Each structure stands twice: as structure tokens, then as C-alpha cells.
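Technical annex B. To support the medicinal chemistry partners, we prepared a structural model of the target in complex with zinc ion, based solely on the information shown next.
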Amino acid sequence: MRAANDALIVIDVQNDFCPGGALAVDGGDQIVAGINALMGDFSCVVMTQDWHPADHASFASNHAGADPYSMLDMAYGPQVLWPDHCVIGSTGAQFHADLDVDQAQMIVRKGYRAGIDSYSAFFENDHKTPTGLDGYLRTRGIDRLTMVGLATDFCVNFSAQDAAGLGYQVTVERDLCRAIDLDGSLDAALDAMAKAGVTMA
Ligand code: VGL
Ligand code: ZN
């Protein structure tokens, strides 16, 4: 069992990020069994759930003529336009059927505001609007985080960087993550996480 100040953060292990889903990540389903086993070691387990309204600004379908995986400049910075995914209430937004959700004490939903995306478990993509997770962890006395899930180069990456910036000691378990890898985004993410002081295990 890990110490009482350790938490496991399970990022976006949802149907749409697994094979057959709308934004499928290669091998996304291969990490589920390992995550289920690892959760048993932690007295604090948090899951995040990408959770978008159908008119979400990160969906290419909501921008006339825009292709999925193209870029758009938003007020808060550059944004990748994604295929519609993790729509509130849809099957794609549900956790993978084999993920042992019962082991989570807290589920943080993010990306529910139509005008702004939220990759990170801590801040929306303006890097300012909090999700509330920092308060939850601090009030539970947590200062060390292990992160796993999908996708290494987007939601895991931004969550890990934000957590390090907030003063948590952060380890990403790479074997229990899978990447989208859009135009070198995985290498860029690994670099950025290392610079932010995140440990790769
Ligand atoms: C994610 C793209 C869009 C992720 C979420 O979980 O990494 N990526 N929404
Ligand atoms: Zn999303």
C-alpha cells in the first residue's frame, strides 16, 4: 500500500479513447487491467472523465469547413480540432467497461463548457480556470501523484505539467498510458513533462 499522501490519478479511460471509439488511441484498452491492479495500492484514487456538450468548440464539426486534427486559434490559444468525442451522456463518454470504477473515490469531469477545452485535470485550456481537483487533493493531505491513462501526449501531459506547477511530486507510469502522437506531439510532451520536473516510470 502506498502512503496516505499518495494519490493515483486515472485520466480519461473512456470508450471514445479506446479501439472502436471516436478518438481511438492505439492500445488504449491494453492499460485497463494494469490500472485496475494498481488502484488497489492507493488509498486515494481519482478518475477524470472528458465530458463535452455536443456544441463543444473543440469539435471540428462545429466549425464550418474545418477538418478533424486541424488547428484553430481560440481566445485562450491554439486548439486542435477533434472528431466529436465524449459527448455528455453518450456511450463513448462512459468509462471502459472493464475499468474498475468502483475503486475511485472522486470523478472529475472536465471540458463541459462549450467554449473552452480542458485537457488537464487541474485547469481548463486557458490554464486559469480550475476544475477543483487541487482543492480536493490538498484537503485530503495529498502531495504526491501517480498518473496513468489516456492520452500520454494530451490529457496526461497537461495534467502532469499542471500538477508539477502546483507543487505536487508527479510520476507518470508510461506503461499504463497510451499516446495519440499527432505530428510529434508525444516527443514534445515527454520533453515538456521532463522540463516541468515530472518523473517518468
Ligand atoms: C483528450 C483530446 C481531446 C485526452 C481529450 O484525453 O487526451 N485528447 N480530448
Ligand atoms: Zn476532449
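Notes passed to the chemistry partners:
The radius of gyration is 16 Å.
Residues 152 and 179 are 5 Å apart (CA to CA).
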